[in-house]
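REVIEWER CHECKLIST
Item 1: Sequence provided? yes
Item 2: Single chain? yes
Item 3: Sequence as submitted:
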Amino acid sequence: MATICFAGTHYTAEEGESVLATLLRHGVDTPYSCKVGSCHTCLLRRTDGPLPEETQRGLKPTLRAQGYFLACRYFPDEDIEVASADEADVSAPARVIGIDRINSAICRIALEPATPLYYHAGQYINLVRSDGLTRSYSLASVPALDAQLEIHVRRLDNGRMSNWLHDELQVGDSLQFQGPWGDCFYLPGRADQELVLIGTGTGLAPLVGILRDALQSDHRGDIHLYHGSRTPTGLYLHERLQRLAEVHDNFHYHACISGDSPPPDCRAGRANELALADFRQLAGRRLYLCGRPAMVNETKRRAFLAGAAMNDIFADPFDMADLRQKPRD
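Item 4: Structure as written out by the authors:
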C-alpha cells in the first residue's frame, strides 16, 4: 500500500483509493467538490516525482509543468509527497462590478478580473470564497463581445455558496477565482454544421455564451437552442432569446416547460425529449449539453444512438448536487 506524505504527516492509502479519498478518510481538511475530476477544486502538487498523465487531464500546461494534479484522479501505487496548491499559481482576483437579480431564484453576476483572462465562451471558473469554499460556475460571457466575465447563479435552499452570493455579495467586493476549465465551447470551422444546444436551469449560461460566440463568428448553419424549466419563471432569458431569434434567421429558440399549462410561446415537455424528438437522426450535427448530470448523460447516450459522433457531443456535467443528502450549489 502507498503512503502519502502531506504537510509532514504520512497517511496510508488503501488499495484502489485516491489521494483525495485517503486524505479525507484521515480527517485532512483539503478542498474538494465533485470528486470526479470535473471541478478542479482538489488540486494538489506532487513534490517528489512525475505524475500519471490521467491525473493532469484538463490542466493548463503551466500547472502540469509545476507538478499539479487532481487528487481525486490519482490512485498511487508508490509512496509520494504532495503539497497544497499555491494560491498564486491557481487563483486570481476579480472585482464584482454588477449584480442583476433576474428573479428570486437567479442572479447574474459580472466580474472584472485583475488581469485579462483568456477563455472560451462556455468554459467554467471556480469561485473561491475567503474561507476556502469553492463552487464552479459556467461563463455566459464572450471574450470578443464582453469586457467582463458573466456567471448565472441559481439559489438553492441549502446552498452555502449560492445563498451567500445572492444575499451578501456586493458590487465592489473582491473574489478569487480559478480557471478557466472545460471543453464545452464553440469551435471555429465547419460553419455550415447544424448546432443543437440543450440545457436546463442555469445550464443556459454556457449555452448563451456558445450561441453568441457562434453568431459573432458568422456561423452559417442552423442553431437550435432548447432551454427547459418546470415553470415559465425558470426561462429567465426568454425575451432576450426571442429577440435574438428575430434578428438571426439561422437561430431557433425552443422554450420548453415540463410542468402544467405552458404559455402559448412555449412548448410542453422536457427540453432533451423535445430535441431528440425533433432530431431523430443526429449524424453530422454538433451537440452541446448543459444541466443536471442525469439529463446530460442520458441525452449523450441517446444522441450517440441517434447517429451523433462522440467528438461532436460537448458537455461539462457537474455532479456537485449529488454529493450530499441535501442539494446545494
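Item 5: Key structural point noted by reviewer: The first strand starts at residue 3 and ends at 6.
Item 6: Recommendation: ____
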